[in-house]
Design a protein that fits this description.
The chain is an alpha/beta fold and 361 residues long. Helices cover 51% and strands 9% of the residues. The chain is flat, with a radius of gyration of 25 Å.
């Protein structure tokens, strides 16, 4: 079991990364985690890469001008162990060009074992009896120097992953769920390789916007774009400029005429917001967002029966296997399977399809 004391070297130069790669080459598995600054900046950056093998913990300061060519090559020849790989793989691909060959995800493994607490801290406590601190979860990882508390937090994100992966692997194999895991992890890695493009025509539609009148939606749309500009210019996340709830309140009031803006708004930002509101109040009706018709699918009676049968089968299997029903299939997936059972094999994984769709004798 890993030691409980958290300490690691911080690497800031290419030659130091090369020395680390010499160590990593002797290990078939490497634990990796990342830290970004999305809670503090508009343009998120990869600020830190944590790496652990049994005889070495290292923190890579990815804000430094480092050549990651050899690092990427070595990692691609290893199995890289993450806890919740989606965010880390996206950050590593966008920032240093890393694309994995073999991945192990302890979060997916824990879910498929039916564990109730699947956060890393909970798993480390459950398997190793070690309490790891969470105090730096929302820290600004772009700031330098990193504090001792941040360094300890960062090291603990990878220090226990390899030992945890071995324990989870044993349990998955004992329960006969290893094939489930392999397919689930492969799908997660493929999903992380796809860029999530935000539709500019849809991005402003925050929670609560659908209930607004078209004119109020037009004002909200203008407010949303104003917030994006302010956030980008200040390099701050949009929620630090104004919360979604405040955007909705201002849009509703603006649709009914002049209003008093929040007192906490700085003077310059207040003036720019007033200009946006004046302009938005004059948007012609032809440019208002169209009220969307409800596109909710109405199933036939046969499809409803098929859905209820699938849901009953899923829930019974989940109880029998001590799994969260959502691990077997979400409600939306069941609805799709009930509507087009012949297409279920295209979005269900093989193991899910065999459990839920294959006819029983």
């Amino acid at each position: 079991m890993p030691e409980t004391q958290a300490s690691a070297s911080v690497l800031e130069a290419t030659d130091e990364i090369s020395e680390l790669c010499d160590v990593l080459r002797h290990h078939p598995e490497v634990a990796v985690d990342t830290e970004g600054d999305s809670l503090h900046c508009y343009h998120e950056k990869l600020c830190l890469i944590q790496v652990s093998v049994p005889d070495r913990d290292a923190l890579i300061d990815s804000l430094q001008p480092i050549d990651f060519t050899r690092f990427n090559e070595v990692l691609r020849s290893r199995t890289v162990v993450f806890h919740g790989c989606d965010y880390d793989l996206r950050m590593l691909r966008r920032s240093i060009g890393f694309v994995p060959v073999s991945v192990f995800d302890t979060y997916i493994a824990a879910r498929l074992l039916g564990l109730r607490e699947v956060g890393l801290a909970s798993l480390v406590k459950s398997y190793f009896g070690v309490e790891i601190p969470k105090s730096s979860q929302k820290a600004n990882w772009a700031k330098r120097p990193l504090t001792p508390a941040m360094l300890a937090y960062a090291v603990n994100d990878t220090r226990y992953l390899l030992a945890l992966a071995h324990r989870l692997t044993e349990q998955l194999q004992e329960k006969g769920r290893w094939a489930w895991y392999e397919e689930s992890c492969e799908r997660a890695v493929l999903a992380a390789a796809e860029d999530r493009e935000q539709d500019p025509e849809q991005a402003w539609k925050i929670a609560g916007s659908a209930a607004l009148a078209p004119q109020t939606q037009a004002i909200l749309r203008a407010l949303w774009h104003w917030r994006e500009v302010e956030a980008e210019q200040m390099d701050r996340p949009p929620f630090q400029i104004m919360r979604n709830e405040d955007l909705l309140v201002i849009a509703r009031k603006a649709a009914n005429g002049p209003q008093t803006l929040p007192s906490w708004l700085p003077g310059g930002r207040r003036r720019r917001l007033l200009e946006v509101l004046r302009s938005a109040s004059q948007i012609p009706e032809s440019d208002w967002p169209q009220k969307e018709r409800s596109l909710r699918y109405r199933p036939t009676s046969q499809q409803e029966k098929r859905f209820e049968a699938l849901k009953a089968r899923r829930d019974a299997l989940a109880e029998q296997l001590t799994l969260d029903p959502g691990v077997l299939a979400s409600r939306s997936v069941l609805e799709k399977a009930a509507r087009e059972p012949e297409m279920a094999g295209t979005y269900l994984m093989k193991w899910q399809w065999e459990l839920l769709m294959q006819e029983r004798e």
